[in-house]
Amino acid sequence: MSTVIFFILLWLLLYTFLAVAVSGEPLWLEKTSGKMIGQTGRSPCHPCEAFHDLNTQIRDGRIDKTEATVRFRAVMAELQAYAGKAGMLDKTPGPCIFPLSGYSLSAIGGKRGSGYVAAGYDYFDGNAHGGHPAHDIFIRDKDQDSLDDVTAKAVSVVATEEGLVVSVENAWARNSLLRGGRYLWIFNPRHNSLTYYAHNETLLVRIGDWVKPGEPVATVGRTGYNACQKRSPTHLHLMHLKIENGLPQPENRFVELSTCIAQ
To answer: Rounded distance, CA 160 to CA 26, Å?
Structure first.
């Protein structure tokens, strides 16, 4: 019996060694939803953490613009490489899903997305940026309790498309000057783009998570310097940045949003 156990253990050791040699990680680690499940627990996404750290420095004006642009290009290249190595580009993309559950295109502010203003915006201006290259999507919330007036429930913010969560900010207090409040950034390696979801009440994802279209990522809230004010109706702030020549450029996605499936 001891001989049998010895050969079983020897086989397992050899199997693990070969798996690591070929793929860099044991085959008993299961990849699912952007997480690594196994005896080592959740594997961190180092390029995601690098983006989060850099984005926070830019947001707070703690880094020179020239240095920030150089580092941004490098981080985006690392994210693309990470996504490719993890097989994320091999996944079949799902359909576009409207970002608020129970709502549709008519919830977007302005006339046919006229609230989108790219002029004056520069990502590298951080929290002091100008312009409004985004769409505000409003919920039914006359008493401003962040609950839908009809259902009396929180409204789910869902991922419009697949992507990798690269930044999550939960640290917001009512006296904060942070304009985005509780926000998150999702990187789509297939489109080489970033989507920003801001003013959330609760965040449901973590840095390094892989999300699919329609997957809940947050609930709508009233967080952020302006969004928490009585004058501001409750809404999701949705911005899309296309990465061109390694740098972020605002992109008006109103037409794309008009084709998204409401759920």
So the answer is: 33
| Residue that the structure tokens 């999507």 belong to | 137
Predicted pLDDT of residue 14: 53
Q: What is the pLDDT of residues 187-227, one digit of tens each?
A: 999 999 999 999 999 999 999 999 999 999 999 999 999 99
Report the alpha-carbon angle 152-156-158, nearest 5. Answer: 165
**Cα dist. 222→176, 184, 199 in Å?**
13, 15, 5
How many residues would you count in the chain? 263
Distance CA(140)–CA(228), nearest Å, equals: 16
Q: Which two tokens stand for residue 80?
A: 């693309």
SS (H, E, C) 174-235: CCCCCCCCEEEEEEECCCCEEEEEEEEEEECCCCCCEECCCCEEEEECCCCCCCCCCCCCCE
Was domain 105-258 assigned CATH 2.40.110.10?
A: no
* Distance of alpha carbon 206 from alpha carbon 204, whole angstroms: 7
β partners of residue 30 = 37
**Nearest alpha-carbon partner for 128 in 58, 69, 195, 70:** 58
210 pairs with which residues across the strands?
164
pLDDT in tens, 217-249: 999 999 999 999 999 999 999 999 999 999 999
Report the alpha-carbon distance of residue 240 to residue 250 in Å, rounded: 6
Token digits of residue 228: 């928490």
How much is the pLDDT for 125?
98
Sorted by sequence, the CB contacts under 8 Å of residue 246 that are 6+ apart come out as: 72, 73, 76, 77
Q: What is the dihedral of CA 76, 80, 83, 87, to 10 degrees?
A: 180
Residue ranges per domain, the chain? 105-258
